[in-house]
Amino acid sequence: MPLTRLSVPDHLSAQQVRGLADAVHDALVECCDVPQGDRFQLVSRFERDHLILDPNFGDVQRTADACVIEITFLSGHTDAQKRRLYRDLAARAAGIGLAQDDLVVGLVENGAIDWSLGNGRAYIDK
Question: Which of 25, 30, 110, 125 could be bridged to 114 by S-S, CB 3.0 to 4.6 A?
Fold first, then answer.
């Protein structure tokens, strides 16, 4: 059950942004056993001065195309799955014309009680 936030520079084309959104979802399905239909994504576009990312921190070379991907999902994923997710995301980014160094990814895990999908019910009470 992921909720993904994509923070992207406003100069990226709609096609690039949709490609990134698809890449993130496909990587979650492939690497973290997320069901295909479990897709909840929020995209925010930022002007150059409102997306402030150090170009070199972490021994990488970020460009003006750098994006931040924040994924909140149910706990239980192994370190190996997370590492595979990072590698898969980088490869998929390259496939849509973004540099592999241009993805900053943050994962947050929580429990089923921390979600409601509607109807005033906790996900755990489904």
Answer: 110
- 3-state DSSP assignment of residue 66: coil
Query: Would you mind telling me the total number of residues written for the chain in this entry?
Result: 126
Q: Three-state SS for 24?
A: helix
* Nearest partner of 43 among 63, 21, 62, judged by Cα: 21
| Interval 3-20 mean pLDDT | 97
pTM: 0.92
- Matching residue, tokens 């990134």: 20
pLDDT of 79 strictly over 80 = yes
Q: Measure Cα distances from 119 to 40, 113, 115, 125, 126 in Å.
A: 17, 14, 12, 11, 10
Q: Which residues pair with 68 in a beta bridge?
A: 7, 104
Does residue 88 register a pLDDT over 90?
A: yes
- Give the per-residue pLDDT at 126: 72
Catalytic residues: 2
Residue 19: give its domain's CATH number: 3.30.429.10
